[in-house]
Amino acid sequence: MKKMEVGILGATGMVGQRFVSLLENHPWFKLAWMAASDKSAGKSYAEACQWRLRSPMPDAVRTMLVNECKPPGAPQLVFASLDSKVATDVEKQFARAGHVVVSNSSSHRMEPDVPLLIPEVNPDHLALVRAQRRERAWQGMIVTNPNCTTVGLAMSLAPLEAAFGVEKVLMTSMQAVSGAGYPGLPTLDIFGNVIPYIAGEEEKVEAETKKLLGKLAGGRIQPAACAVSAHCNRVLVEDGHTESISVSLRRRATERELIEAWRAYHSVPQEKQLPTAPAHPLVVREEAARPQVKLDVSTERGMATVIGRLRPCAVLQFKYTALSHNTIRGAAGAALLNAELMKAEGYLD
Amino acid sequence: MKKMEVGILGATGMVGQRFVSLLENHPWFKLAWMAASDKSAGKSYAEACQWRLRSPMPDAVRTMLVNECKPPGAPQLVFASLDSKVATDVEKQFARAGHVVVSNSSSHRMEPDVPLLIPEVNPDHLALVRAQRRERAWQGMIVTNPNCTTVGLAMSLAPLEAAFGVEKVLMTSMQAVSGAGYPGLPTLDIFGNVIPYIAGEEEKVEAETKKLLGKLAGGRIQPAACAVSAHCNRVLVEDGHTESISVSLRRRATERELIEAWRAYHSVPQEKQLPTAPAHPLVVREEAARPQVKLDVSTERGMATVIGRLRPCAVLQFKYTALSHNTIRGAAGAALLNAELMKAEGYLD
Amino acid sequence: MKKMEVGILGATGMVGQRFVSLLENHPWFKLAWMAASDKSAGKSYAEACQWRLRSPMPDAVRTMLVNECKPPGAPQLVFASLDSKVATDVEKQFARAGHVVVSNSSSHRMEPDVPLLIPEVNPDHLALVRAQRRERAWQGMIVTNPNCTTVGLAMSLAPLEAAFGVEKVLMTSMQAVSGAGYPGLPTLDIFGNVIPYIAGEEEKVEAETKKLLGKLAGGRIQPAACAVSAHCNRVLVEDGHTESISVSLRRRATERELIEAWRAYHSVPQEKQLPTAPAHPLVVREEAARPQVKLDVSTERGMATVIGRLRPCAVLQFKYTALSHNTIRGAAGAALLNAELMKAEGYLD
Amino acid sequence: MKKMEVGILGATGMVGQRFVSLLENHPWFKLAWMAASDKSAGKSYAEACQWRLRSPMPDAVRTMLVNECKPPGAPQLVFASLDSKVATDVEKQFARAGHVVVSNSSSHRMEPDVPLLIPEVNPDHLALVRAQRRERAWQGMIVTNPNCTTVGLAMSLAPLEAAFGVEKVLMTSMQAVSGAGYPGLPTLDIFGNVIPYIAGEEEKVEAETKKLLGKLAGGRIQPAACAVSAHCNRVLVEDGHTESISVSLRRRATERELIEAWRAYHSVPQEKQLPTAPAHPLVVREEAARPQVKLDVSTERGMATVIGRLRPCAVLQFKYTALSHNTIRGAAGAALLNAELMKAEGYLD
Question: Quick check: D292 pLDDT over 90?
Answer without folding.
Answer: yes
